[in-house]
User: Which sequence fits this backbone?
């Protein structure tokens, strides 16, 4: 069974600074996808970034980038130039390529950006 | 383009009652998934439907059921409600889960 672990329940960062959220996962699958979703106070989950496991290049999306270490089963999210609007819960998620049709989510990291 | 719409947004029910939640996916999306979110258990997968067929089901009791209609709208039903069913129920629609799921704002169910 696959598991996703986020070991940082809460984090804070000063506006304009950089912060890294950690995520580790466990799977015996060789092909899978990894995601970071953001859940602001409005409760709506929003995709931040995704990574295909077969791609060695780390995904980037504007101020958001990941450090994907497949051998270590680690998938951290780096937020550069943090903004007040980045304040939210961040969830790491895993989906196997083999057609399970479901996400497995971590427990989330509550990020607060301080003015 | 309209997003994923979940109704109702808030619901208060009494133990033993049943409840039906609705999810209207983004136009053209044929996959609809349901998740239960609680402070203690986090986000737990309930089920996924594609073109009216349930492709996967999570580890929930049979009191939790769902269906999808020909227009891709989905409903989930919980019978014989228990206090522990109090949660935020999130619906997600996608053309391909591997690329992106679009979530609704959820239905907050409180069982008293």
Assistant:
């Amino acid at each position: 069974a696959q598991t996703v672990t986020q070991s940082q329940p809460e984090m804070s960062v000063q506006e304009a600074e950089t912060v890294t959220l950690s995520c580790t996962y466990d799977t015996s699958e060789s092909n899978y996808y990894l995601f970071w979703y953001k859940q602001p106070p409005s409760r709506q989950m929003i995709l931040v970034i995704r990574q295909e496991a077969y791609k060695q290049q780390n995904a980037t999306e504007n101020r958001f980038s990941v450090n994907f270490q497949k051998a270590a089963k680690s998938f951290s999210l780096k937020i550069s130039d943090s903004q007040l609007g980045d304040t939210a819960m961040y969830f790491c998620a895993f989906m196997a390529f083999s057609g399970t049709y479901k996400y497995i989510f971590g427990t989330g990291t509550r990020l607060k950006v301080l003015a | 383009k309209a997003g994923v719409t979940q109704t109702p947004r808030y619901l208060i029910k009494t133990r033993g009652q049943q409840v039906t939640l609705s999810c209207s996916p983004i136009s053209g999306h044929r996959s609809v998934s349901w998740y239960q979110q609680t402070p203690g258990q986090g986000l737990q997968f309930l089920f996924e439907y594609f073109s009216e067929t349930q492709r996967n089901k999570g580890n929930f009791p049979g009191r939790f059921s769902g269906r999808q209609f020909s227009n891709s709208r989905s409903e989930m039903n919980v019978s014989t409600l228990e206090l522990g069913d109090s949660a935020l129920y999130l619906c997600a629609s996608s053309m391909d889960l591997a690329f992106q799921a679009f979530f609704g704002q959820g239905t907050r169910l409180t069982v008293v």
In short: Chain A has no helices and twelve strands. Chain A has a mean pLDDT of 95.
